[in-house]
Amino acid sequence: MNEPTSQRGGKRPDERLEADIVIIGGGLGGTAAALAAARAGKSVILTEETDWIGGQLTSQAVPPDEHRWIETEGCTASFRELRERIRDYYRDSYPLTEQARANPILNPGSGWVSRLAHEPRVALAVLQAMLAPYVNSGRLRVLYHASPASAQVEGDEVRSVTVSVRGGSRRIELAGAYVLDATETGELLPLTGTEYRIGAESRAETGEPHAPEEALPDDVQAFTHVGAMEYVPGADFKPEKPPEMFGYWSRLVPPFSPYPLLSWFATDANDTTKKKEFTLLPNDQGVTSLWDYRRIIDPRHLAVPLYPGEQSLLNWAQNDYYLGSIMDVPDDVRRDRLYAARQLTLSVVYWLQTDAPRLDGGKGWPGLRLRGDIVGTEDGLAKSVYIRESRRIRALQTVTEADVSKELRGAEGIRRYEDSVGVGSYHLDLHHTTVTHRSFYIPSYPYEIPLGALIPVRTANLLPACKNIGVTQISNGCYRLHPTEWNVGEAAGLLAAYCLDVSRRPREVHGDAALRTGYQERLSAHGVQLHWSDQVAQEVVEAPK
Fold first, then answer.
1. So what's the pLDDT on residue 2?
2. CA nearest 28: which of 367, 524, 418, 479?
3. CB–CB of 428/371 below 8 Å?
4. pLDDT above 70 for 29
5. Are the CB atoms for 471 and 453 separated by under 8 Å?
6. Tens-digit pLDDT profile for residues 53-98
7. What does the mean pLDDT of the chain come to?
8. What is the pLDDT of residue 207?
């Protein structure tokens, strides 16, 4: 039996709040969980470390990575509502051309990473509007600038979580029948003593052909501090001096590349053993442009000029920070690595302004600058770093590479689960890891999300609601993307609400066919797709290799 954990630092909370469901972390999963639970009639407290909910879409400044069926299936109804409300926001508020306004699948930025590349502030406005009825009625309370500090645990039950507000100026104890961990790195798992995995599992443990021979807890995927850029041709925004660490980053040659990190050569997603050449702007020389990769507003959609220049988000291989993990390390190490990641992105921008080779033989684009107003900061870097890999619960069921890999499943196609709580699709996409520097982009089938992956092996009333579900490092490579994180959060929020209604624990719902069916019926009523259509299932098996 676990002993109750003490409040960190021994300081008593200044206030205690209670709700049916407490959700720690206001990213995409946490926001989806709060919306689902509030719509199901439960009182909810949601915390967020910054002043922006929405995580990947907003405070991390990452447009949605999605699959090719996203406009018709493969996500929940509420995620589709979010997407359509983003498009409607542009139609209702922006001076669009008639052609753009009439386009039913408008892509505001015409970015090629996403069918819906858009400005982070627009996603924030839409998410706030979706939550507004429940915030305004008092059913949902959102606490900003709040980080988990400690937890009270008795046996297998989490009694409360205490959050530190605005760097410790206040401490608030939050108590609820269910606690959801929607933090980007699974912060509640160590605080509550919930069993978890981190980094790379061993091949012997998971049976995955791409797993290392030995488990490597420190070998996590690179994270990225995204920057918001604007390009104004003819302008000169070069700063007087380079960023503090520019010398270091400009000289660094990664162990996985013959080229400097600050170069136009990066891993080719189609063959991760090779490097591919990129450049900044669209061109007629056949070199892939990174500017329209994550461009967030395409001026061709606007009937009148709005911005000095085009805007794009800097989330490339060049600013992936792969030199160390920020999880389960001392606080000073974490701070140093976060600072170095900021310096890396600032250094990439300076390199682009001054030294980056152009296709015409020149160097640099001095008309580039960071735009802090795009991401709500002073320096133009996102409020939070983009985390690709979290601590992951030891769950009743763990999804592995064999469950999603196209090569391993072969003619069996999509794996179907009787306990499915949603669907998704993406390649098994791993960015370079921090120890072995492995990188994969493995073809996969569309997948389902088993309920067993949302239930810890022991802790009774804590549920994962972000990237911290029962997956391996490798299967996390596809389960980590926007639509799936939203689906996981929504399923967790509705599971907690359902358990309150039927007075049963999640483990009981999973183990009882009647209870599980009742929960799945509630998911379906809320517009959660449980299985892929037969059409998609047949299409992916028959597709050429």
1. 39
2. 479
3. no
4. yes
5. yes
6. 999 999 999 999 999 999 999 999 999 999 999 999 999 999 999 9
7. 96
8. 97
- For 127, 313, 434, the CA distances from 372, given in Å and listed in that order, are 21, 12, 29
Structure tokens at 539: 């299409």
Does the structure show a pLDDT above 90 at 267?
A: no
Helices (runs of H) and strands (runs of E) counted in the chain: 15, 22
User: Is the distance from CB of 246 to CB of 345 less than 8 angstroms?
Assistant: no
User: pLDDT tens, 158-210?
Assistant: 999 999 999 888 999 999 999 999 999 999 999 999 999 999 999 999 999 99
Q: Which amino acid is at 394?
A: R
Rounded CA-CA distance 148/24 in Å is: 7
pLDDT-derived band at 481 (thresholds 50, 70, 90) equals very high
The Cα 284–Cα 121 span in angstroms is 33
**What token pair was written down for 24?**
């720690």
Give the separation between CA 394 and CA 398, rounded to whole angstroms: 8
> Please, is 295 exposed, middle or buried when counting C-beta atoms within 10 Å of its C-beta (0-12, 13-18, 19+)?
buried
Single-letter residue type at 13 = P
Work out whether strand 320-321 and strand 140-144 pair parallel, antiparallel, or are unpaired.
unpaired
Cα(388)–Cα(378) distance, integer angstroms: 25
Token representation of residue 34: 């709060």
Per the rule left: phi > 0, alpha: psi between -120 and 50, beta: everything else, 47 is beta
How far separated are the first and last CA of the chain, in Å rounded? 51
Gap between the Cα atoms of 44 and 25, Å rounded: 13
What is the arithmetic mean of pLDDT over 292-317?
A: 96
Length of the chain: 545
Give the CA distances from residue 222 to residues 146, 277, 316, in Å, rounded to whole numbers and listed in that order. 25, 21, 11
Please answer whether residues 227 and 349 qualify as being in contact, where contact means their C-beta atoms are separated by less than 8 angstroms: yes
Q: Which helix (H) or strand (E) holds 408?
A: helix 406-409
CA dihedral 444, 398, 75, 19 (to 10 degrees): -160
pTM for the whole structure: 0.96
Strands in 425-538 per DSSP E:
428-430, 440-442, 447-450, 462-464
Half-sphere exposure at residue 448, Cβ-oriented, CA atoms within 13 angstroms: 21
User: What does the H/E/C string look like for 347-401?
Assistant: HHHHHHHHCCECCCCCECCCCEEECHHHHCCCCCECCCCECCCCCEECECCCECH
- What contacts 326, CB < 8 A, 6 or more positions away? 185, 223, 333, 334, 337, 338, 385
CA distances from 9 to 43, 150, 164, 329, 331 (A): 30, 9, 11, 19, 15
